[in-house]
């Protein structure tokens, strides 16, 4: 299967998104969670039609979006969602912040599992709560939830768990037994699990994802899930996300009435097309991601044998362990300054991020090889 990452570098340099404008033109940018793909054809057509109609007003009836997502969830995860269980947000971050505000009081704690998506930290700050780190264990093998640590945190009074599933930056898909155990702990302590599942559509071939809310009565009783087409279909700038809740649906009914107005109408249009028509495109993407992950492993073995990363099961992120290179706490800074390759800084992911960097391999094989060669050339 031909790689989906076939956009020439000269074309990518013309883009105005964060990935291609935050660094000088001599830098190969591999940090920001965007991919070097062209829009799926039905998504592009739907957006062109909206522009031709000058259909760029406020977000309106969300019914078609809800139905498109319900169909997508049923096909991909055998997840049968009631229409009234779905709420819309501008993006997952907005949703998480607003829901945390409803579930907590200022200064309360929220469990997170570092090293984890750096935006979790400012989200918690905006919600007026404190991070309660319960680091993943077995990190060298891709990480596993420290269930005992979560239980201790909840026993001490924390009542919200912010879960990253699949996990960013490891690309780990938490197993169903592990998630059921987490749900039992949450129910035992009257806690709510907020499951950020934005990377779930990008499971690599043969790697099933089990959404949190599908894993039994305890999960349905304790969970609120958040997701979007934005990562899998490269639509982050269009602003459209959904949340799903079963027993916790009453929380979503208390959201400020202005929240849905933040959804972009073009984000809705694009998401409906992606969820409805682009299963084949997504399958091609996930095969290309798995191929790139294997290529990255081979390239590192050849050019940077001291650098390793746990095998990602989903998405386009590699958590590079650079500690053997002795580049200090933030190797990404070294690779940028000396090799002109931009990666995400490991320390920004929280505890256990020192000596690491996150690489986004959602790019062409040629660009990936060029980046690793440059990184190798950056060594003292």
Amount of helix: 25-40%
Mean pLDDT: 97
Q: In angstroms, what separates the terminal alpha carbons?
A: 38 Å
Q: What's the order of the H and E elements?
A: HHEHHEHEHEHEHEHEEHHHEHEEEH
Largest sheet: 5 strands, mixed
The name of the CATH architecture of the largest domain is 3-Layer(aba) Sandwich
* Percentage of residues in DSSP E strands: 5-15%
For this structure, what is the CATH homologous superfamily of the largest domain? Type I PLP-dependent aspartate aminotransferase-like (Major domain)
Give the structural class: alpha/beta
CATH class of the largest domain: Alpha Beta
Spans of 5+ residues with little confidence (pLDDT < 50)?
none
- The gross shape turns out to be globular
Number of strands: 12
- Strand order across the biggest sheet? 2-8-7-6-5
Cofactor: pyridoxal 5'-phosphate
Enzyme class: lyase
EC number: 4.4.1.13
Pfam families: Aminotran_1_2
Task: Tell me what the structure shows.
One of its GO terms (molecular function) is pyridoxal phosphate binding. Belongs to the class-II pyridoxal-phosphate-dependent aminotransferase family. MalY/PatB cystathionine beta-lyase subfamily. It holds the Pfam family Aminotran_1_2. 39% of the residues lie in helices and 13% in strands. It has 380 residues and is α/β, with parallel strands linked by helices. It folds into 2 domains: 129 residues, Aspartate Aminotransferase, domain 1, CATH 3.90.1150; 234 residues, Type I PLP-dependent aspartate aminotransferase-like (Major domain) (Aspartate Aminotransferase, domain 2). The protein has a 5-stranded mixed sheet, sandwiched between helices. Helix 3 packs antiparallel against helix 11, helix 7 runs parallel beside helix 8 and helix 12 runs parallel beside helix 14. The radius of gyration is 20 Å and the shape is globular. The relative contact order is 0.17. The mean pLDDT is 97.
């Amino acid at each position: 299967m031909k790689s989906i990452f076939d956009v020439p570098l000269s074309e990518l340099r013309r883009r105005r998104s964060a990935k291609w404008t935050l660094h000088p033109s001599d830098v190969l940018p591999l940090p920001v969670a965007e991919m070097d793909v062209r829009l799926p054809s039905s998504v592009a057509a739907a957006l062109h039609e909206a522009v031709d109609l000058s259909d760029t007003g406020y977000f309106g009836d969300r019914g078609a979006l809800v139905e498109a997502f319900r169909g997508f969830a049923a096909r991909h995860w055998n997840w049968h969602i009631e229409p009234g269980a779905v709420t819309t947000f501008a993006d997952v971050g907005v949703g998480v912040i607003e829901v945390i505000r409803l579930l907590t009081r200022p200064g309360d704690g929220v469990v997170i599992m570092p090293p984890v998506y750096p935006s979790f930290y400012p989200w918690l700050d905006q919600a007026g709560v404190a991070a309660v780190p319960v680091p993943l264990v077995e990190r060298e093998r891709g990480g596993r939830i420290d269930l005992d640590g979560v239980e201790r945190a909840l026993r001490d009074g924390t009542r919200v768990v912010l879960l990253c599933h699949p996990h960013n930056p490891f690309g780990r898909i938490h197993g169903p037994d592990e998630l059921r155990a987490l749900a039992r702990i949450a129910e035992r302590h009257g806690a709510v699990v907020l499951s950020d599942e934005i990377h779930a559509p990008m499971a690599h071939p043969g790697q099933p994802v089990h959404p949190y809310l599908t894993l039994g009565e305890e999960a349905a009783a304790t969970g609120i899930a958040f997701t979007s087409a934005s990562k899998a279909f490269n639509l982050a700038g269009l602003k459209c996300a959904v949340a799903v809740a079963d027993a916790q649906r009453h929380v979503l009914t208390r959201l400020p009435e202005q929240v849905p107005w933040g959804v972009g109408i073009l984000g809705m249009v694009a998401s409906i097309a992606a969820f409805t028509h682009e299963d084949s495109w997504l399958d091609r993407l996930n095969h290309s991601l798995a191929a790139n992950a294997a290529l990255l492993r081979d390239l590192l073995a050849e050019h940077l044998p001291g650098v390793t990363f746990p095998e990602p099961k989903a998405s386009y992120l590699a958590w590079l362990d650079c500690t053997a290179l002795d580049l200090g706490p933030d190797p990404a800074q070294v690779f940028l300054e000396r090799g002109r390759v931009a990666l995400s800084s490991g320390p920004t992911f929280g505890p256990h991020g020192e000596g690491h960097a996150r690489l986004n391999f959602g790019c062409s094989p040629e660009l990936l090889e060029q980046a690793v060669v440059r990184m190798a050339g950056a060594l003292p």
